[in-house]
Amino acid sequence: MPNDFPLRKIIHVDMDAFYASVEQLDNPDLRGKPIAVGGSSKRGVVAAASYEARKYGVRSAMSSVLAQRNCPGLIFVKPRFERYKEISHQIRNIFYEYTDLVEPLSLDEAYLDVTVNKKGNPSASLIAKEIRQKIYDTIGLNASAGISINKFIAKVASDINKPNGQKTVNPEEVSLFLEELEIRKFYGVGKVTAEKMYKLGIFTGKDLKLKTLEFLEGNFGKNGSYYYNVVRGIHTSPVKPHRIPKSVGAERTFNENLSSEIFMLERLDHIAEELEKRLKKANIAGKTVTLKIKYSDFTLNTRSKTLAYYISSKSLILETAKELLYQEKLQNSVRLLGISLANLNTEKKEKTTDKESISVQLKFEF
């Protein structure tokens, strides 16, 4: 990998089966049993599954009907997001004991830059081990971690020794690690992209590395340069302590499929009201309204419109959402509707800090 790019000591901490683990923590009767956090109705979806349930092929985003078919003894537990937020806050406070450079990705995972840290510990690997132990001792939950020179590699590495493990990829190990990695394990390569890469003869990082920038951009557009760089260990994005959202949204999955636009408008009214609350709470407005429609056959359709001015009120959001709903004929009955607002007024406030990085020698202790 190139020597002229900044290297950092980055830890990616990822809680193991977070929602399900919190439920097992709070209810000892659930420990060691296959549980799914989510609704058990025919319209329900699994939000999280314990490792005991995962052995049966139960996964997040799976329909509850299929999950129960895979695991007849599956126990469904209603989600308690306030409790998950409470635990997440406790975990984050542990992170701040080591560094202020903490970038949360969600309630259960975050990046930490420990190149310079509050403990004066030169070993990012030992810091990760200490953090994981402190989370277990203080809260009673297991976490996994990835440690490397940038966020991309740390994120990929955190999945290697799950659950309750960690993986360090030292600077001199980066090239071989990425070359041997299956392409579907690259962060940012989803199922559809992976299938496309397979058809192009790309199965591992080594295969990807053999492709030219022109080839990748020709086949994957603007993502082509991202793939070209990350397989070479180049990812200069710093840990951003105050992540600014790119969009704010709200959505609802219905107990019964909707085929009448009148009923859909009623639901959109409630969704727009919820979105307005979230926008006001965060003091955010946006210009681009997107309507998300998921049909009964699970196909997804999105329709967007960008306005000339920022909006945040329910009335204007709903007005635009209605326009998008009538934009084209519905293909089927609808199981989910959502509205999101992007092109936010926060984006102009965000500072680009990619160049504000710590430059160090290639050889330094992890």
From TrEMBL:
Domain UmuC intervals: 10-190
Pfam family, one: IMS_C
Any one Gene Ontology BP term: DNA repair
Cell cycle is among the record's keywords: no
UniProt binding sites for Mg(2+): D14, D108
Top-tier EC class: transferase
Cofactor: Mg(2+)
PROSITE patterns per UniProt: UMUC
Catalytic activity: DNA(n) + a 2'-deoxyribonucleoside 5'-triphosphate = DNA(n+1) + diphosphate
Keyword Ubl conjugation found: no
Keywords per UniProt: Cytoplasm, DNA damage, DNA repair, DNA replication, DNA-binding, DNA-directed DNA polymerase, Magnesium, Metal-binding, Mutator protein, Nucleotidyltransferase, Transferase
SUPFAM superfamilies listed in its UniProt record: DNA/RNA polymerases, Lesion bypass DNA polymerase (Y-family), little finger domain
Manner of cofactor binding, per the entry note: Binds 2 magnesium ions per subunit.
Entry's Gene Ontology molecular function annotations: damaged DNA binding; DNA-directed DNA polymerase activity; magnesium ion binding
Record localization: Cytoplasm
Signal peptide region: none
Enzyme Commission number: 2.7.7.7
One GO CC term on file: cytosol
Sequence similarity: Belongs to the DNA polymerase type-Y family.
Subunit organization: Monomer.
Task performed by this protein: Poorly processive, error-prone DNA polymerase involved in untargeted mutagenesis. Copies undamaged DNA at stalled replication forks, which arise in vivo from mismatched or misaligned primer ends. These misaligned primers can be extended by PolIV. Exhibits no 3'-5' exonuclease (proofreading) activity. May be involved in translesional synthesis, in conjunction with the beta clamp from PolIII.
Name of the protein this chain belongs to: DNA polymerase IV
Name of the encoding gene: dinB
